[in-house]
Every structure is written in structure tokens, then in C-alpha cells.
Amino acid sequence: MRARWGVAILIVAPFLSQKSFAAEAPTDIQLSLEDALLRAEASSPLVRRAHRAREVVTALRTGAGLLFPSNPAAFLALGNRRDSSPSVPPSDGFEWGVHLEQTVEVAGQRSTRLAEVARAIQVAESRERLARAETRARVRTVYLATLIADAHVESRGVARSWRTGCFHQPERAFRRALHRMLRFI
Questions:
Q1: What is the DSSP code string of 27-41?
Q2: Is the separation of the CB atoms in 85 and 92 below 8 Å?
Q3: Most exposed residue of 5, 25, 53, 86, measured as fewest CB within 10 angstroms of its CB?
Q4: How far apart are the C-alpha atoms of 50 and 124, rounded to whole Å?
């Protein structure tokens, strides 16, 4: 019997010691449409993804603007040569060779690459504007739907009873469950 009471106290004590913030919660939260739009743009995954994609495309400008498309290459061959063939004069002695290589574009490929990157940047900026517009449209829709729903609830005259009853329902349910549990102990 004492063990059951101990278990019941251990289960119930944390719930009784917690402060209820439901009674202190404001029943009327004010958020303007402009505030909602600013918050949504700042936290929208669509806008953030489009912004990061634009930054990636903008970074392509660096590679496209290079004067030389590849790095220069240099090769050096040094060595001693001995030839046992009957050539005249004999092919013996120190031998060396140098090879330098650099790709040069002569047909305007650099300007073509820069023009393509400029077009890609324009497309990325358009996608970012589209993401912002889509986010703003979604927020406007939800904001207006919330205003309409709130006006509908208030027009029915149940706003006050619904709001106050909503905060106390979890507490009532907990008390009912506690009474049921204590009946069996």
C-alpha cells in the first residue's frame, strides 16, 4: 500500500510543481502583415536556398574571368647521352631540353564565358525574386485566412469561451486522470 502511494507521489509531484503559463498567456497576439512578411522572408527555406544558389552562380564569375584557361606547363629534360652507333661525330655528352606550354584563347572564349555567367546570374536573381514572391503570397494567404477565421469565431460569440476553455482543458484532463488513478490505489 505504501509503495503504491510512493509511486503515485513520484508520478504526480512533477506536474504539481510546474507553474502554469496558460493563464498568463496573452489571448490576443498582434502581428501586422508587414511584420509577418519580414519574418517569413528571413526564415523561409525557399528564399534561403535561392539566395545560396545565387551566391554559387556569382562565384562562377571568378573562374570565367581568368585570362588563361589553364595553368602553364614547363618540362625540363637533363641527362648524359652515350651512343655506341658509328655516327659522325659521336653522340656522347651532356644533353638537355626545355618545353614550355600555355593555352591561349584567341577567338573570344573568355568573353563568351563571362556573358554566360552574367546570364546565369540573371536567372539566379530571378529565381530568388520568385522565391520571395511565393513566400510573400503564402504568408498573405495564411494571414488573411487567420483574420477571416478569427472574425468568424468572434461573430459566433464563442471566442471568449473557446479561448478560456482551451487553456484549462489540459489541466482538467490531468485532474480527471489523477482522480481515476487515485481511486484504484
A1: S-----HHHHHHHHH
A2: no
A3: 86
A4: 7
